[in-house]
Amino acid sequence: MKSDSPLNTRSSSLESTITPPTKGRRDRKLRRIVNRIHLWAALIGSLPALLLCLSGLILVFEPELQSFEEWAHASVQPTGERLPLAELLASVETEAENAVVYIALPQHPEQIALIGTEDRQYHFVNPYNGEILKSTKNPAIIMQAVRVFHTSFFMGEFGTWIGIASSCFLVVLCLTGCYLFLKRKLTARTVFRIRWKPTVRRNYDLHAVAGIVTAVPIILISLSGALIGLGAAWRETILFLTNSEFKPRPKLEQAVDRYEWNFDFATILETVNNASPEGMHIDSISLPSEPDNPIRFRLLYDWATRPASWAFINPANGELIEFHHHWDYEAGALIHRLNRGFHSGELYTEAMRWLWLLLMIAPFILAYTGYRQWRAKKQKP
Protein backbone atom coordinates (compact mmCIF):
# COMPACT_ATOMS: atom_id res chain seq x y z
CA MET A 1 0.00 0.00 0.00
CA LYS A 2 1.41 3.34 -1.07
CA SER A 3 2.22 5.68 1.78
CA ASP A 4 1.07 9.32 1.73
CA SER A 5 4.20 10.44 3.54
CA PRO A 6 5.51 13.99 3.14
CA LEU A 7 8.44 12.56 1.13
CA ASN A 8 6.17 10.95 -1.48
CA THR A 9 4.05 14.08 -1.71
CA ARG A 10 7.14 16.18 -2.27
CA SER A 11 8.43 13.74 -4.92
CA SER A 12 5.22 13.87 -6.98
CA SER A 13 5.24 17.65 -6.66
CA LEU A 14 8.76 17.78 -8.05
CA GLU A 15 7.79 15.55 -11.01
CA SER A 16 4.91 17.86 -11.89
CA THR A 17 7.19 20.88 -11.86
CA ILE A 18 10.11 19.28 -13.72
CA THR A 19 8.23 17.59 -16.62
CA PRO A 20 6.78 20.69 -18.37
CA PRO A 21 10.12 22.56 -18.58
CA THR A 22 11.76 19.41 -19.96
CA LYS A 23 9.13 19.17 -22.70
CA GLY A 24 9.53 22.89 -23.35
CA ARG A 25 13.29 22.47 -23.76
CA ARG A 26 12.75 19.66 -26.26
CA ASP A 27 10.36 21.85 -28.26
CA ARG A 28 12.79 24.75 -28.24
CA LYS A 29 15.64 22.49 -29.31
CA LEU A 30 13.57 21.02 -32.16
CA ARG A 31 12.53 24.51 -33.21
CA ARG A 32 16.19 25.62 -33.30
CA ILE A 33 17.08 22.59 -35.44
CA VAL A 34 14.20 23.24 -37.86
CA ASN A 35 15.10 26.93 -37.99
CA ARG A 36 18.70 26.02 -38.83
CA ILE A 37 17.55 23.65 -41.61
CA HIS A 38 15.27 26.40 -42.94
CA LEU A 39 18.18 28.87 -42.96
CA TRP A 40 20.67 26.57 -44.70
CA ALA A 41 18.12 25.38 -47.24
CA ALA A 42 17.50 29.05 -48.08
CA LEU A 43 21.21 29.89 -48.33
CA ILE A 44 22.02 26.89 -50.55
CA GLY A 45 18.91 26.60 -52.70
CA SER A 46 17.50 30.12 -52.99
CA LEU A 47 19.46 31.39 -56.01
CA PRO A 48 18.81 28.45 -58.38
CA ALA A 49 15.22 28.18 -57.11
CA LEU A 50 14.62 31.87 -57.85
CA LEU A 51 16.12 31.44 -61.33
CA LEU A 52 13.71 28.55 -61.91
CA CYS A 53 10.82 30.74 -60.76
CA LEU A 54 11.94 33.61 -63.00
CA SER A 55 12.15 31.42 -66.10
CA GLY A 56 8.92 29.72 -65.00
CA LEU A 57 7.22 33.13 -64.94
CA ILE A 58 8.06 33.48 -68.62
CA LEU A 59 7.17 29.91 -69.54
CA VAL A 60 3.71 30.24 -67.96
CA PHE A 61 2.78 32.06 -71.16
CA GLU A 62 5.09 30.10 -73.45
CA PRO A 63 2.45 29.30 -76.12
CA GLU A 64 1.55 32.97 -76.58
CA LEU A 65 5.14 34.21 -76.41
CA GLN A 66 6.37 31.55 -78.81
CA SER A 67 3.56 32.31 -81.24
CA PHE A 68 4.32 36.03 -80.95
CA GLU A 69 8.00 35.41 -81.63
CA GLU A 70 7.20 33.20 -84.60
CA TRP A 71 4.46 35.32 -86.14
CA ALA A 72 6.40 38.54 -85.46
CA HIS A 73 8.73 37.61 -88.32
CA ALA A 74 6.01 38.54 -90.76
CA SER A 75 2.29 39.13 -91.08
CA VAL A 76 0.01 39.20 -94.08
CA GLN A 77 -3.06 41.05 -95.21
CA PRO A 78 -5.99 38.71 -95.90
CA THR A 79 -6.63 38.56 -99.63
CA GLY A 80 -9.60 36.36 -100.38
CA GLU A 81 -9.52 32.66 -99.56
CA ARG A 82 -6.48 30.77 -98.31
CA LEU A 83 -4.93 28.23 -100.64
CA PRO A 84 -6.08 24.64 -100.15
CA LEU A 85 -3.56 22.93 -97.89
CA ALA A 86 -2.43 20.53 -100.64
CA GLU A 87 -1.61 23.45 -102.97
CA LEU A 88 0.15 25.31 -100.17
CA LEU A 89 2.36 22.31 -99.44
CA ALA A 90 3.15 21.75 -103.12
CA SER A 91 4.14 25.40 -103.50
CA VAL A 92 6.44 25.27 -100.46
CA GLU A 93 8.06 21.98 -101.50
CA THR A 94 8.76 23.39 -104.97
CA GLU A 95 10.28 26.62 -103.68
CA ALA A 96 12.16 25.07 -100.72
CA GLU A 97 13.23 22.01 -102.73
CA ASN A 98 12.52 19.78 -99.72
CA ALA A 99 9.59 17.74 -98.49
CA VAL A 100 7.28 19.25 -95.85
CA VAL A 101 7.21 17.41 -92.50
CA TYR A 102 5.46 19.89 -90.17
CA ILE A 103 2.66 22.46 -90.46
CA ALA A 104 1.49 24.92 -87.79
CA LEU A 105 -1.86 26.21 -88.98
CA PRO A 106 -2.57 29.94 -88.68
CA GLN A 107 -5.35 30.60 -86.18
CA HIS A 108 -6.13 34.14 -87.35
CA PRO A 109 -6.55 35.72 -90.82
CA GLU A 110 -3.42 37.90 -90.42
CA GLN A 111 -1.17 35.04 -89.32
CA ILE A 112 1.22 33.27 -91.60
CA ALA A 113 1.65 29.50 -91.85
CA LEU A 114 4.73 27.98 -90.20
CA ILE A 115 5.93 25.04 -92.29
CA GLY A 116 8.93 22.83 -91.55
CA THR A 117 10.81 20.82 -94.18
CA GLU A 118 12.96 17.71 -93.85
CA ASP A 119 16.18 19.75 -94.04
CA ARG A 120 15.21 21.16 -90.60
CA GLN A 121 14.30 24.57 -91.95
CA TYR A 122 11.18 26.44 -90.88
CA HIS A 123 9.45 28.63 -93.45
CA PHE A 124 7.05 31.49 -92.79
CA VAL A 125 4.57 31.19 -95.63
CA ASN A 126 1.81 33.46 -96.90
CA PRO A 127 -1.23 31.14 -96.73
CA TYR A 128 -3.00 33.09 -99.47
CA ASN A 129 -0.42 32.64 -102.25
CA GLY A 130 2.17 30.14 -100.95
CA GLU A 131 5.06 32.63 -100.98
CA ILE A 132 7.88 31.89 -98.52
CA LEU A 133 8.47 35.14 -96.62
CA LYS A 134 11.33 34.01 -94.38
CA SER A 135 13.28 30.83 -93.59
CA THR A 136 15.12 29.98 -90.38
CA LYS A 137 16.45 26.98 -88.47
CA ASN A 138 14.88 28.17 -85.22
CA PRO A 139 11.61 30.09 -85.43
CA ALA A 140 11.46 30.91 -81.68
CA ILE A 141 15.05 31.11 -80.48
CA ILE A 142 14.32 33.27 -77.41
CA MET A 143 11.65 30.95 -76.00
CA GLN A 144 13.80 27.91 -76.75
CA ALA A 145 16.65 29.49 -74.79
CA VAL A 146 14.32 30.20 -71.84
CA ARG A 147 13.07 26.60 -71.95
CA VAL A 148 16.60 25.16 -71.99
CA PHE A 149 17.63 27.46 -69.13
CA HIS A 150 14.61 26.38 -67.07
CA THR A 151 15.31 22.68 -67.57
CA SER A 152 19.12 22.60 -67.38
CA PHE A 153 20.62 26.09 -66.77
CA PHE A 154 22.51 25.57 -70.08
CA MET A 155 24.58 22.86 -68.35
CA GLY A 156 23.07 19.70 -69.77
CA GLU A 157 22.37 16.79 -67.45
CA PHE A 158 24.36 18.35 -64.60
CA GLY A 159 22.16 21.44 -64.78
CA THR A 160 19.06 19.25 -64.75
CA TRP A 161 20.19 17.71 -61.45
CA ILE A 162 20.82 21.20 -60.05
CA GLY A 163 17.21 22.03 -60.93
CA ILE A 164 15.95 18.84 -59.26
CA ALA A 165 17.98 19.60 -56.12
CA SER A 166 16.72 23.21 -56.10
CA SER A 167 13.12 22.00 -56.30
CA CYS A 168 13.78 19.69 -53.33
CA PHE A 169 15.33 22.56 -51.35
CA LEU A 170 12.22 24.62 -52.09
CA VAL A 171 10.04 21.82 -50.70
CA VAL A 172 12.21 21.68 -47.54
CA LEU A 173 11.92 25.46 -47.18
CA CYS A 174 8.13 25.30 -47.38
CA LEU A 175 7.81 22.41 -44.93
CA THR A 176 10.17 23.86 -42.33
CA GLY A 177 8.62 27.31 -42.73
CA CYS A 178 5.14 25.90 -42.15
CA TYR A 179 6.38 24.09 -39.03
CA LEU A 180 7.89 27.27 -37.60
CA PHE A 181 4.76 29.23 -38.42
CA LEU A 182 2.27 26.68 -37.09
CA LYS A 183 4.07 26.47 -33.72
CA ARG A 184 2.67 29.93 -32.98
CA LYS A 185 -0.67 30.46 -31.33
CA LEU A 186 -2.89 30.92 -34.35
CA THR A 187 -6.19 32.68 -34.68
CA ALA A 188 -8.08 33.85 -37.74
CA ARG A 189 -6.83 37.34 -36.95
CA THR A 190 -3.14 36.51 -36.59
CA VAL A 191 -2.74 34.21 -39.61
CA PHE A 192 -3.30 36.96 -42.20
CA ARG A 193 -2.30 39.97 -40.12
CA ILE A 194 0.46 42.17 -41.51
CA ARG A 195 1.79 44.83 -39.15
CA TRP A 196 3.29 47.48 -41.37
CA LYS A 197 5.25 49.15 -38.57
CA PRO A 198 7.90 48.60 -37.35
CA THR A 199 9.88 47.28 -40.33
CA VAL A 200 11.00 44.05 -38.62
CA ARG A 201 7.42 43.04 -37.87
CA ARG A 202 6.35 43.94 -41.42
CA ASN A 203 9.01 41.68 -42.94
CA TYR A 204 8.14 38.86 -40.55
CA ASP A 205 4.40 39.09 -41.23
CA LEU A 206 4.84 39.36 -45.02
CA HIS A 207 7.16 36.37 -44.94
CA ALA A 208 4.77 34.32 -42.82
CA VAL A 209 1.58 35.18 -44.72
CA ALA A 210 3.11 34.72 -48.18
CA GLY A 211 4.64 31.42 -47.09
CA ILE A 212 1.59 29.86 -45.46
CA VAL A 213 -0.76 30.91 -48.29
CA THR A 214 1.41 29.57 -51.11
CA ALA A 215 3.18 26.64 -49.39
CA VAL A 216 0.98 23.78 -50.62
CA PRO A 217 0.82 24.75 -54.34
CA ILE A 218 4.54 25.62 -54.41
CA ILE A 219 5.37 22.22 -52.91
CA LEU A 220 3.24 20.50 -55.56
CA ILE A 221 4.74 22.56 -58.41
CA SER A 222 8.28 21.87 -57.14
CA LEU A 223 7.67 18.13 -56.81
CA SER A 224 6.07 17.92 -60.27
CA GLY A 225 9.05 19.78 -61.75
CA ALA A 226 11.51 17.44 -60.03
CA LEU A 227 9.63 14.44 -61.42
CA ILE A 228 9.75 15.90 -64.94
CA GLY A 229 13.49 16.46 -64.49
CA LEU A 230 13.97 12.77 -63.67
CA GLY A 231 12.74 12.04 -67.20
CA ALA A 232 12.74 8.38 -68.17
CA ALA A 233 13.32 7.23 -64.58
CA TRP A 234 10.08 8.90 -63.41
CA ARG A 235 8.17 7.75 -66.49
CA GLU A 236 9.20 4.12 -66.13
CA THR A 237 8.55 4.18 -62.37
CA ILE A 238 4.99 5.47 -62.68
CA LEU A 239 4.27 3.02 -65.49
CA PHE A 240 5.61 0.17 -63.33
CA LEU A 241 3.65 1.22 -60.23
CA THR A 242 0.39 1.51 -62.18
CA ASN A 243 1.10 -1.55 -64.34
CA SER A 244 0.38 0.45 -67.49
CA GLU A 245 2.10 1.60 -70.67
CA PHE A 246 1.98 4.39 -73.21
CA LYS A 247 -0.02 3.87 -76.34
CA PRO A 248 2.50 3.33 -79.14
CA ARG A 249 2.22 5.46 -82.24
CA PRO A 250 0.50 3.37 -84.90
CA LYS A 251 2.41 2.15 -87.94
CA LEU A 252 1.04 1.60 -91.43
CA GLU A 253 0.47 -2.00 -92.42
CA GLN A 254 1.97 -1.21 -95.80
CA ALA A 255 4.59 1.45 -96.43
CA VAL A 256 3.42 4.35 -98.58
CA ASP A 257 5.83 6.42 -100.63
CA ARG A 258 5.32 10.16 -100.42
CA TYR A 259 4.53 10.33 -104.13
CA GLU A 260 1.79 7.71 -103.70
CA TRP A 261 -0.29 9.77 -101.31
CA ASN A 262 -3.85 9.98 -102.52
CA PHE A 263 -6.09 12.10 -100.35
CA ASP A 264 -7.80 15.47 -100.10
CA PHE A 265 -6.73 17.61 -97.15
CA ALA A 266 -10.17 19.16 -96.81
CA THR A 267 -11.64 15.68 -96.37
CA ILE A 268 -8.95 14.73 -93.85
CA LEU A 269 -9.58 17.87 -91.78
CA GLU A 270 -13.27 17.06 -91.72
CA THR A 271 -12.52 13.46 -90.68
CA VAL A 272 -10.28 14.58 -87.83
CA ASN A 273 -12.72 17.23 -86.62
CA ASN A 274 -15.55 14.69 -86.62
CA ALA A 275 -13.47 12.24 -84.56
CA SER A 276 -12.32 14.80 -81.98
CA PRO A 277 -14.30 15.68 -78.83
CA GLU A 278 -16.29 18.90 -78.82
CA GLY A 279 -14.26 21.98 -77.92
CA MET A 280 -10.99 20.85 -79.55
CA HIS A 281 -9.19 22.29 -82.55
CA ILE A 282 -6.30 21.18 -84.76
CA ASP A 283 -3.09 22.89 -83.64
CA SER A 284 -0.49 21.35 -85.93
CA ILE A 285 0.12 18.57 -88.46
CA SER A 286 3.21 16.36 -88.69
CA LEU A 287 3.68 14.71 -92.08
CA PRO A 288 5.53 11.38 -92.12
CA SER A 289 9.22 11.37 -92.91
CA GLU A 290 9.25 7.55 -92.98
CA PRO A 291 7.08 5.52 -95.39
CA ASP A 292 5.47 3.44 -92.60
CA ASN A 293 4.42 6.44 -90.49
CA PRO A 294 0.93 7.99 -90.62
CA ILE A 295 0.06 11.69 -90.73
CA ARG A 296 -0.22 12.97 -87.15
CA PHE A 297 -2.61 15.73 -86.03
CA ARG A 298 -2.18 17.48 -82.67
CA LEU A 299 -5.44 18.68 -81.14
CA LEU A 300 -5.94 21.01 -78.19
CA TYR A 301 -8.89 22.30 -76.23
CA ASP A 302 -9.94 25.82 -77.11
CA TRP A 303 -9.35 26.92 -73.49
CA ALA A 304 -6.14 24.99 -72.67
CA THR A 305 -2.87 23.98 -74.31
CA ARG A 306 -2.36 20.75 -72.33
CA PRO A 307 -2.90 17.90 -72.44
CA ALA A 308 -2.99 17.27 -76.17
CA SER A 309 -4.86 14.59 -78.10
CA TRP A 310 -3.68 12.99 -81.32
CA ALA A 311 -5.25 11.75 -84.56
CA PHE A 312 -3.41 9.45 -86.97
CA ILE A 313 -4.34 9.38 -90.68
CA ASN A 314 -3.35 6.92 -93.38
CA PRO A 315 -1.73 9.00 -96.18
CA ALA A 316 -2.61 6.35 -98.76
CA ASN A 317 -6.35 6.95 -98.53
CA GLY A 318 -6.96 9.66 -95.93
CA GLU A 319 -8.72 7.29 -93.49
CA LEU A 320 -8.53 7.67 -89.72
CA ILE A 321 -6.32 4.94 -88.20
CA GLU A 322 -6.56 5.83 -84.51
CA PHE A 323 -7.57 8.73 -82.28
CA HIS A 324 -5.65 9.01 -78.99
CA HIS A 325 -7.72 11.14 -76.65
CA HIS A 326 -5.70 11.76 -73.49
CA TRP A 327 -8.47 10.42 -71.24
CA ASP A 328 -8.15 7.07 -73.01
CA TYR A 329 -4.56 6.59 -71.85
CA GLU A 330 -3.79 4.05 -69.14
CA ALA A 331 -3.29 5.33 -65.58
CA GLY A 332 0.50 5.73 -65.62
CA ALA A 333 0.59 7.47 -69.00
CA LEU A 334 -2.29 9.74 -67.99
CA ILE A 335 -0.62 10.68 -64.69
CA HIS A 336 2.60 11.44 -66.58
CA ARG A 337 0.81 13.74 -69.02
CA LEU A 338 -1.32 15.44 -66.36
CA ASN A 339 1.80 16.07 -64.28
CA ARG A 340 3.37 18.03 -67.14
CA GLY A 341 0.18 20.00 -67.68
CA PHE A 342 -0.09 20.75 -63.95
CA HIS A 343 3.52 21.92 -63.70
CA SER A 344 3.17 24.30 -66.65
CA GLY A 345 -0.20 25.65 -65.48
CA GLU A 346 -1.74 24.66 -68.82
CA LEU A 347 -4.06 21.99 -67.43
CA TYR A 348 -7.58 22.47 -68.77
CA THR A 349 -8.22 26.04 -67.67
CA GLU A 350 -6.81 29.44 -68.61
CA ALA A 351 -7.31 30.77 -65.06
CA MET A 352 -4.78 28.24 -63.78
CA ARG A 353 -1.95 29.96 -65.64
CA TRP A 354 -2.76 33.31 -63.99
CA LEU A 355 -2.74 31.59 -60.60
CA TRP A 356 0.65 30.06 -61.43
CA LEU A 357 1.90 33.53 -62.39
CA LEU A 358 1.04 34.81 -58.89
CA LEU A 359 2.57 31.75 -57.26
CA MET A 360 5.88 32.28 -59.07
CA ILE A 361 6.05 35.82 -57.62
CA ALA A 362 5.70 34.56 -54.02
CA PRO A 363 9.25 33.08 -53.74
CA PHE A 364 10.74 36.49 -54.55
CA ILE A 365 8.72 38.06 -51.71
CA LEU A 366 9.79 35.25 -49.38
CA ALA A 367 13.46 35.60 -50.36
CA TYR A 368 13.47 39.37 -49.84
CA THR A 369 11.64 39.37 -46.50
CA GLY A 370 13.64 36.36 -45.27
CA TYR A 371 16.90 38.10 -46.16
CA ARG A 372 15.82 41.28 -44.35
CA GLN A 373 14.99 39.31 -41.22
CA TRP A 374 18.32 37.50 -41.36
CA ARG A 375 20.21 40.78 -41.75
CA ALA A 376 18.31 42.33 -38.86
CA LYS A 377 19.29 39.42 -36.57
CA LYS A 378 22.93 39.60 -37.69
CA GLN A 379 23.07 43.31 -36.92
CA LYS A 380 21.79 42.88 -33.36
CA PRO A 381 24.52 43.58 -30.77
Secondary structure layout:
Elements: H1 6-59, H2 62-71, H3 85-96, E1 100-104, E2 113-117, E3 122-125, E4 132-136, H4 141-152, H5 156-182, H6 188-191, H7 199-230, H8 232-241, H9 265-275, E5 280-286, E6 295-301, E7 309-313, E8 320-324, H10 331-344, H11 350-378
Antiparallel strand pairs: 1-2, 1-5, 2-3, 3-4, 5-6, 6-7, 7-8
Helix pairs in contact: 1-4, 1-5, 1-11, 5-7, 7-8, 7-10, 7-11, 8-10
Task: Explain what this protein looks like in three dimensions.
This protein has about 375 residues and is of the alpha+beta class. It contains 11 helices and 8 strands. Among the domains are: about 5-65 and about 145-245 and about 350-380, no CATH class; about 75-140. The relative contact order is 0.11. It has an 8-stranded antiparallel beta sheet with strand order 4-3-2-1-5-6-7-8.
Overview in brief:
The protein is an alpha+beta fold and 381 residues long.
**Helicity, in percent?**
55-70%
Main beta sheet: 8 strands, antiparallel
What structural class do the secondary elements suggest? Answer: alpha+beta
N- to C-terminal distance? 59 Å
The low-confidence parts are none
Annotation keywords:
381 residues, alpha+beta, elongated
